[in-house]
Amino acid sequence: MPVVNGCWLFVIGCLLLVVCYWLFVIGCLLLVVCYWFPNKQLTTIVFYNVTKYRMMTVLLVEDSLTETQVLTRYLSQAGLRVISVTNGEEAKLKLQLQTPDLVILDVILPGQSGFEICREIKTNASTQKIPVVICSTKGTDADKLWGSMLGADAYLSKPVNQQELMQIIRQLTAV
Q: Among 155, 154, 160, which residue's Cα sits nearest to residue 172?
């Protein structure tokens, strides 16, 4: 009788090993799937600058904490690195220290308006090639035209639609 019990223990041990092996394999497959498809919706893609193999950076100039949080969440979910500032002076300092791949500007800011910052970015030789998206509650046709005349590459009205934002970023960054 002890030999039979030993056989059963051996069989149960082998079955447990097989189950553990398959759980390990399934876990590895899930890790691979989660790596390649980080967002459940599968509608956003991770933005990388292919030529430099680095994560793309967005300079977000927004004075509203709520809007900053919303836009940062949208951009981060898409795999973008976000640097946020609350006014034009901080934006100028960041632009002197590093060149982002894209700038998102609110129009109504303390000090300089987003329109003025946009004009400065687009008239400066070192920053003029950076795409600028104006994102504001001021969404009239006149505001959009004014933004375009000052060099903005796109204009989004608030509240921002996540899919529309991602589509514009893909177009402007050629991803």
A: 154
